[in-house]
User: Which sequence fits this backbone?
């Protein structure tokens, strides 16, 4: 089998990362969560009070930001910001509420896309995000565009947060998903959109296992 590049894009909280993680485990591929990278940048901006509208401050901050991934003892990919494990912190609502505005900044995107292309150079990767099939790897062997009903997405995300002991109102989760989708689809720099050659996967009535099986099946056909 040849090693391929799998791009998974779609709206917020559709199960992209859960699917991508499982698929990468099954295929023995590397999983790269590009949303985690934008979240790590956002966390840095918040903690260091970086003025988002000041290009000089943004450029300086980007030079000081080093994002890496390490595999935990539980075989999970975890995000590190300047050597610190930020996997939990980047999933909090504080970061979720600011990540889409930060992700509209051109300089931020240029820096992240460059790193993502480097990470995917070896192939044998599953990458999930918003612009993987359109901008990061327009030549990806398999492109999947995931979507699901708003309420289904919100329920799933709320349950995920509860499992991590974060109590959030369903209304707040819905509001956050709507806000992020709106900003992500309407921004000037690489907006979220379905690539022409992407296959659509609606996960509203599908279990995680079925989603994973479907993507693995599609991947095998490309190898
Ligand atoms: O994937 P996740 O929901 O964690 O992504 C968080 C946010 O990061 C998205 O709402 C989007 O604003 C931004 N993002 C992006 N491009 C990507 C991945 C994520 O702009 N490739």
Assistant:
């Amino acid at each position: 089998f040849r090693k391929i590049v799998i791009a998974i894009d779609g709206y917020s909280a559709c199960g992209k990362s859960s699917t991508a993680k499982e698929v990468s485990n099954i295929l023995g591929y590397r999983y790269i969560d590009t949303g985690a990278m934008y979240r790590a940048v956002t966390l840095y901006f918040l903690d260091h009070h970086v003025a988002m509208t000041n290009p000089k401050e943004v450029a300086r901050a980007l030079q000081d930001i080093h994002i890496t991934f390490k595999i935990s003892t539980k075989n999970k990919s975890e995000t590190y910001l300047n050597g610190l494990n930020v996997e939990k912190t980047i999933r909090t609502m504080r970061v979720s509420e600011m990540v889409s505005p930060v992700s509209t900044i051109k300089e931020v995107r240029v820096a992240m896309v460059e790193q993502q292309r480097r990470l995917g150079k070896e192939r044998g990767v599953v990458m999930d995000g918003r612009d993987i099939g359109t901008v990061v790897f327009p030549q990806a062997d398999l492109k999947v565009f995931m979507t699901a009903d708003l309420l289904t997405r919100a329920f799933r995300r709320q349950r995920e947060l509860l499992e991590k002991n974060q109590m959030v109102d369903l209304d707040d989760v819905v509001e956050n998903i709507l806000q992020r989708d709106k900003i992500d689809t309407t921004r000037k720099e690489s907006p979220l959109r379905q690539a022409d050659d992407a296959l659509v996967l609606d996960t509203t009535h599908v279990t995680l296992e079925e989603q994973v099986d479907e993507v693995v099946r599609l991947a095998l056909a490309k190898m």
User: Anything to note?
Assistant: The chain has one domain: 5-222. The mean pLDDT is 96.
